[in-house]
Amino acid sequence: MSHRQHSFQGLYNQFITGAFMEHEFWHQRWQQNQIGFHQGDINLHLRQQWSKLEVVPNSRVLVPMCGKSSDMLWLLDQGYRVVGIELSPLAVAAFFSENDLQPTLRQQGEFIAYEIDELAIFCGDFFTLRSVDIGRIDAVYDRAALVALPAKMRLDYAAHMATLLEPNVKILLETFDYLQQEMSGPPFSVPHDEVEKLFHDWCDIELLVSEQILKREVKFKDRGLSQLQEHVYRLVVRESAKKHHCTQRRFLDDAEK
Ligand SMILES: C[S@@+](CC[C@H](N)C(=O)[O-])C[C@H]1O[C@@H](n2cnc3c(N)ncnc32)[C@H](O)[C@@H]1O
Question: Is 30 annotated as a binding-site member?
Answer without folding.
Answer: yes
